[in-house]
């Protein structure tokens, strides 16, 4: 375990920014670390509003997997605390963050869960875009000093496992749950749908 942790810390120090890092690169990484995560609700919203029922079901499926994976993260954090780099005075930190458990990364878990689900459901373009966002965010959050590289690898593993293990439940409950949400949507926004402002 000590060897793995030493390797994790060594990779972190190779990726972590320093005071000598160009200001523009730190600023760009901070923007990515903070805000690229919003690509998820924006993309899911676009999928829902622009697509048919199959695309909406995929958006619901991806959201379901993401919430389950994030729930697993919370359980891991309760059972096992892994300090963030700044909590052990390792490297440099450019982003203020609570000293909660670093493993696994919630950002990377959310993005990975969405990406895996979209890819498994055949939405390759949307999935590829989220994969790109995920890689960028994972790098940025290590770069600014709030995560270790293994936090990101663990997040991807948890997201992938959640996607696979939740598949039987989704096959049973996913279809009726998605239909109920789509029906509710059509009732709630019936007025703009009837006027052609939104896709039914």
Keywords:
200 residues, mainly alpha, Vanadium-containing Chloroperoxidase, domain 1, 9 helices
What does this structure look like?
The chain has one domain (2-194): Vanadium-containing Chloroperoxidase, domain 1, CATH 1.20.144. Helices cover 72% and strands 0% of the residues. The chain has helices at residues 2-15, 23-35, 39-50, 53-79, 106-120, 124-143, 149-165, 167-188, 190-194. The protein is elongated and about 60 Å long. The model has no long low-confidence stretch (mean pLDDT 94).
In short:
This protein has 200 residues and is an all-alpha fold. The chain is 72% helix and 0% strand.
Taking all Cα atoms into account, the compactness measure Rg is 19 Å
Q: For the residues shown, what is the average pLDDT?
A: 94
What is the total number of structural domains? 1
Low-confidence stretches: none
**Strand elements, count:** 0
SS-derived structural category: mainly alpha
CATH architectural category: Up-down Bundle
- Count of separate DSSP helical elements: 9
CATH topology category name:
Vanadium-containing Chloroperoxidase, domain 1
How are the SSEs placed, and which strands pair?
Blueprint: H1 2-15, H2 23-35, H3 39-50, H4 53-79, H5 106-120, H6 124-143, H7 149-165, H8 167-188, H9 190-194
């Amino acid at each position: 375990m000590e060897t793995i942790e030493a390797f994790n810390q060594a990779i972190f120090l190779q990726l972590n920014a320093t005071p000598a890092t160009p200001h523009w690169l730190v600023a760009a990484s901070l923007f990515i670390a903070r805000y690229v995560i919003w690509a998820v609700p924006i993309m899911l919203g676009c999928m829902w509003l622009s697509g048919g029922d199959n695309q909406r079901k995929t958006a619901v499926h991806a959201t379901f997997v993401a919430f389950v994976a994030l729930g697993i993260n919370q359980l891991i954090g309760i059972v096992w605390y892994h300090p963030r780099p700044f909590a052990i005075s390792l490297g440099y930190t450019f982003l203020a963050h609570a000293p909660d458990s670093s493993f696994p990364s919630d950002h990377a878990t959310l993005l990975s869960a969405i990406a895996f689900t979209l890819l498994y459901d055949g939405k390759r373009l949307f999935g590829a875009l989220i994969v790109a966002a995920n890689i960028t965010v994972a790098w940025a959050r290590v770069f600014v000093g709030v995560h270790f590289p293994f936090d990101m690898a663990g997040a991807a593993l948890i997201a992938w496992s959640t996607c696979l293990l939740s598949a039987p439940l989704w096959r049973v409950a996913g279809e009726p749950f998605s239909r109920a949400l789509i029906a509710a949507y059509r009732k709630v926004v019936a007025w703009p749908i009837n006027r052609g402002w939104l896709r039914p």
